[in-house]
């Protein structure tokens, strides 16, 4: 099986608070029912959807708003494998993992987070954290990718 078929195409959003230039805060949400599973919003790309359409749809589904300014896109795809303990009936199978395209977005002032907007909420809580807190709180398996994309966005002057 080719790598393309082994990995589910996915978008992910590094979400900045609306006042990031003053506060330096990142948005993190906690996966429903999974202890310490704090992460950025992410989700699959539907057939025929552009990356930006998928990003905005996933933000609406997962955090209840797509009131964001898209600032930048990470130039590469980043792949990761699902943990071995994932159930075979999980919706993401038969994939081995996900191939993600990261975006940097800033919440618009007045954007309202509503984790229960979707029929089947994926997150149960959210918070705003500093960069240092982000790397302590984020799901361990995501930290390397987060560090890579955030360092890129900083180096390019987006953050």
Q: What low-confidence regions span 5 or more consecutive residues with pLDDT below 50?
A: none
Structural class category: alpha+beta
Mean pLDDT: 91
Number of separate domains? 1
Subunit organisation of the chains:
single chain
Which outline best applies? globular
- Strand fraction equals 25-35%
Distance between the termini: 38 Å
Describe this structure in words.
Strands 4-1-6-5 form a 4-stranded mixed beta sheet, with helices on both faces. It starts with a helix and ends with a helix. The mean pLDDT is 91. The chain contains 5 helices and 7 strands. A hairpin with a 6-residue loop joins strand 2 (26-31) and strand 3. The chain has one domain: Nucleoside Triphosphate Pyrophosphohydrolase (Alpha-Beta Complex), CATH 3.90.79.10. With 159 residues, the protein is of the alpha+beta class.
Q: Key features?
A:
Nucleoside Triphosphate Pyrophosphohydrolase, 159 residues, three-stranded antiparallel beta sheet, single chain, alpha+beta, globular, four-stranded mixed beta sheet, 5 helices
Write a concise synopsis of the structure shown.
The chain is an alpha+beta fold. The chain contains five helices and seven strands, in the order αβαβββαβββαα.
List the helices and strands and how they pair.
Blueprint: H1 3-6, E1 7-16, H2 20-23, E2 26-31, E3 38-39, E4 42-44, H3 51-63, E5 68-81, E6 97-107, E7 123-129, H4 131-137, H5 143-155
Parallel strand pairs: 1-6
Antiparallel strand pairs: 1-4, 2-3, 2-7, 5-6
């Amino acid at each position: 099986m080719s790598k393309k078929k082994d990995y589910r195409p996915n978008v992910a959003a590094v979400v900045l608070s609306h006042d990031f230039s003053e506060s330096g805060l990142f948005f993190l949400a906690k996966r429903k029912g999974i202890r310490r599973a704090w992460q950025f919003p992410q989700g699959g790309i539907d057939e025929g959807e552009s990356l930006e359409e998928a990003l905005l749809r996933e933000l609406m589904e997962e955090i209840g708003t797509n009131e964001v300014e898209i600032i930048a896109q990470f130039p590469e795809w980043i792949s990761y494998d699902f943990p071995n303990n994932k159930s075979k009936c999980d919706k993401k199978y038969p994939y081995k993992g996900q191939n993600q395209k990261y975006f940097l977005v800033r919440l618009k002032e007045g954007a309202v987070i509503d984790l229960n907007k979707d029929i089947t909420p994926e997150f149960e809580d959210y918070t705003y954290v500093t960069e240092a807190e982000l790397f302590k709180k984020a799901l361990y398996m995501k930290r390397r990718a987060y560090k890579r994309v955030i360092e890129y966005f900083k180096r390019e002057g987006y953050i």
